[in-house]
Inverse folding.
């Protein structure tokens, strides 16, 4: 299997609290990988480790055959990211904001136009960022992630705060990326019906542990074998997490 991201027993501890616990991910090149988990499960922390924003306590990872931490800088050049709510210079236009990132990344001017076009912001490029609606800000954040069309995108809840049509647009954009330029997307979201429509593979985290990893089809099989409702992703997700929580409570009582 051609994996572009693999993690091996990735672990993050804060004092005596384990936020990410021995997580081994396998993300296929050109796939959309839905990273799911309840609040506090460790999704953002895992993504931050992949981006070198926080150091793992244990474990390691490989991105496009490059090993962390040795190849950290090369790894970063290959990833576009959107982590939680991105911030911008409010008194600069959308285009100017992107141009700042473009210069840091040493890309060409046409990359800014390409990114604006990809997210449908071309006609609003000259509006000040502070005058953008929430949805436009999210799209500007995505445009920043897409600058230079990086082979890997890490998107942490990119549809947070969007209205239904904004969500629909972002979904279509994300879905188009693998065929558009063979991009691999790691995306976290609580909107399971959205993830169901775009993800090839799913990873489910709970309390820092990876409870399930596999294709949508594998997940359906797994649900049926476990006697869970397998009608939609949300039902399966809730059943898997609830079972794990029940077992945790039982173990805690022993
Ligand atoms: N800097 C920190 N210091 C201490 N604990 C932290 C720190 N960062 C994260 N945590 C804890 O690690 C756990 C995982 O947090 P994380 O943000 O990765 O969860 P998440 O899956 O992204 O949740 P959400 O869906 O709410 O975004 C939480 O319990 C959080 O409080
Ligand atoms: Mg998070």
């Amino acid at each position: 299997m051609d994996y572009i991201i693999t993690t091996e027993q990735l672990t993050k501890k804060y004092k005596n609290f384990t936020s990410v616990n021995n997580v081994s991910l396998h993300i296929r090149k050109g796939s959309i990988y839905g990273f799911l988990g309840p609040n506090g499960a460790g999704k953002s922390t895992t993504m931050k480790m992949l981006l070198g924003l926080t150091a793992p306590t244990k474990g390691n990872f490989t991105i496009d055959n490059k090993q962390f931490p040795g190849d950290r800088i090369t790894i970063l050049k290959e990833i576009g990211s959107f982590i939680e709510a991105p911030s911008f210079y409010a008194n600069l236009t959308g285009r100017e904001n992107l141009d700042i990132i473009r210069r840091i990344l040493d890309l060409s001017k046409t990359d800014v136009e390409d990114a604006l076009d990809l997210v449908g912001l071309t006609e609003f490029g000259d509006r000040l960022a502070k005058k953008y609606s929430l949805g436009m800000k999210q799209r500007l954040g995505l445009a920043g992630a897409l600058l230079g069309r990086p082979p890997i995108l890490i998107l942490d809840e990119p549809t947070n705060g969007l209205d239904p049509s904004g969500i629909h647009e972002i979904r279509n954009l994300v879905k188009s990326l693998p065929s558009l330029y063979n991009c691999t997307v790691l995306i976290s979201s609580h909107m399971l019906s959205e993830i169901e429509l775009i993800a090839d593979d799913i990873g489910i985290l709970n309390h820092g542990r990876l409870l399930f990893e596999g294709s949508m089809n594998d997940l359906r099989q797994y649900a049926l074998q476990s006697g869970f409702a397998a009608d939609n992703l949300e039902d399966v997700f809730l059943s898997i997490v609830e079972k794990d929580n029940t077992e945790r409570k039982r173990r805690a009582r022993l």
In short: Residues 86-150 form one domain. The first helix runs from residue 43 to 50.
